[in-house]
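Here is the promised in-class demo. Please do not try to memorize the tokens; focus on the logic of going from shape to residues.
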């Protein structure tokens, strides 16, 4: 059951401890949130809306010709933010799939955004996400690099390797010889799955690992992963921002 009418939502807020006002940081002459919005538009998967916590973000997106909606700045997570935005802009539930694209991925390829929808071709899948094989040795033991533990023998779908997510962790896992996979923070939810997810309290493993997606796994929801070839740059620090400026300049 492939999604027939996806919407792509980008949560964004100014309150970043490591990089204040991150969504408005200039990259190649545009605010970062506008760069991410442009990548989403280039993907062509459906309507694109920024779910903003502050009016400054709404104004920046509107100035670029995009669509943005203001949400409560006190919402606890990006998932809660996109759900609040969705309920406001689509109360009749016309969109059956919601892509949650992080607002700090200005270099993500439009094709990778398209790829996250592919696992939803299987009607048993509730949520889809992306991962890529870890190449740099120092990332294998880095707790800031979230590892996706994927069921063996991933299948080919639409030219992509896909497999079922068994766990996500900051530890080095699985043990033994073989590849490790770096999780990429973009999700495609069936609408009912997103409603279920935000309606549940944080789970014990989610709190322990500080990984929101574990709430879904602990609740028995199925997450499948599409494996892509490249890792988009996530902008979390001034050094990341400078690298993004070089890549997009």
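The designed amino acids, position by position:
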């Amino acid at each position: 059951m492939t999604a027939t009418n996806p919407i792509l939502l980008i949560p964004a807020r100014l309150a970043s401890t490591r990089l204040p006002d991150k969504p408005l940081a200039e990259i190649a002459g545009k605010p970062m949130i506008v760069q991410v919005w442009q990548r989403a538009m280039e993907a062509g998967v459906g309507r694109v809306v920024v779910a903003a916590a502050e009016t400054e973000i709404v104004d920046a997106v509107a100035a670029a010709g995009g669509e943005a909606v203001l949400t409560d700045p006190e919402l606890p997570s990006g998932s809660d933010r996109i759900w609040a935005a969705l309920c406001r802009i689509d109360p009749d539930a016309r969109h059956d799939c919601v892509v949650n694209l992080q607002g700090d991925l200005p270099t993500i390829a439009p094709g990778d955004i398209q790829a996250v929808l592919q696992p939803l071709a299987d009607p048993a899948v509730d949520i889809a996400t992306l991962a890529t094989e870890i190449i740099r040795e120092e990332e294998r033991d880095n707790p800031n690099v979230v590892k996706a533990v994927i069921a063996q023998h991933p299948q080919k779908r639409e030219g992509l390797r896909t497999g079922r997510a068994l766990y996500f962790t900051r530890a080095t896992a699985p043990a033994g010889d073989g590849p490790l996979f770096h999780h990429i923070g973009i999700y495609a939810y069936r609408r009912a799955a997103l409603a279920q997810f935000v309606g549940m309290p944080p789970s014990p493993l989610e709190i322990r690992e500080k990984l929101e997606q574990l709430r879904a796994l602990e609740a028995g929801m199925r997450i499948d992963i599409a494996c892509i070839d490249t890792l988009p740059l996530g902008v979390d620090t001034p050094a990341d921002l400078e690298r993004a400026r070089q890549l997009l300049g």
